Amino acid sequence: MSEARVLVVHGGRFGQSAKIAAAMRRTLGEKGLPSDLAPLTARTAIDPSAHAAVLLVTSVRYGHFDKNAYRLVERNRSWLETHPAQLVTVSLTARKPEKRDPQVHSYTKKFLDKSGWKGRVAVVAGALEYPRYNLLDRSMIQLIMRITDGPTDPSAAIEYTDWDQVAETAQSFAELVSNHPREQ
Question: Does 40 map to a domain?
Answer without folding.
Answer: yes
